[in-house]
Amino acid sequence: MTSRFIEQNALPGFDEENPSSQGFPSIQRGPDTIGNVVVSYTPAREVLTKATGFMDAYDFTLNPYSGCSFGCTYCYAAFFSRDVERRDSWGKWVNVKDNAVELLRKRKRGTLDGKLIYMSSVTDPYQPVERQLELTRGILQTMADRGDKPKLVVQTRSPDVVRDCDLYRRIADNGGQVQVNMTVTTDDEDVRRTFEPHCPANPRRLDAITEVQSAGVEACITMTPLLLVSSPYAFADSLLDTGVQKFIAQPFHFKRGKFLAGTRDGAFDLMAEKLGCVRSSFQDEYMEHYQMVFGVLQDTLPQLGEGKSGFEPPF
Predict the structure, then answer these.
(1) pLDDT single digits (tens) 261-280
(2) What is the pLDDT of residues 207-260, one digit of tens each?
């Protein structure tokens, strides 16, 4: 399968945050809505961005899209939106960097060899729009066809990532390295539906990362954030059943999260109910719960990192 973007020409030199300032119109391609999500198409100046902050151990971050239709209620990435309107409508818009493949093709061969690349830091490269546009696949196919040898970490919560195992193996066969990180947040679907209403169920994610691991692609499960867990030991067993050997966890951040309109109270009330406590004390109760679950995971899993140190490059 070949990405629809690979053979399309694109204009260089765009400002991805303000394309109109460059004197060129936005390029409209593909669907303009998917469900209730508005999709726009904007040429970017660059597809690879120097990594900073939480990802500063990497050389580059790679975000084929801005915005994310998964729209998790707690997503920190909403704060990187360029205006209040976009922050407040997080989860209902996606911007496609439609010249991303062309930008990558124009890079001098060998410049990505050995470079640590994190895909993606503020979006999900396998959100639903990817099924139609195949932009992420086009990027990966370009790397594979050029013989690039990056050290690539792919972060997603979508089972669709299994589609591209063939390209991950090709990149590795060329001399690069690839690790697929699958976010799994809870064993409780009530909790998942409240905090991640538009995301695939966690059991589907576990099945997908099992398939990635079985396909010979290096894999990791990231419990970031780790929400409430109903049965810690059974949860740990389900993680081990995937065959994955590397895991990362971090707690839910109450103050830093971006809650979509009308969801904060419901999410917090559900947490308090599940913890058997009143709303005023549930944050402390949650942290005790997290420490208990983390202890079980630490005793059970072969390799468990936590927080930023857990996300250090694995290569």
Answers:
(1) 445 667 778 888 988 999 88
(2) 999 999 999 999 999 999 999 999 999 999 999 999 999 999 999 877 654 554
CA 73 to chain centre: 14
Q: Which residues of 30-55 are buried (b: 16+ CB within 10 A; e: fewer)?
A: beeebeebebbbbbbbbbbbebeeeb
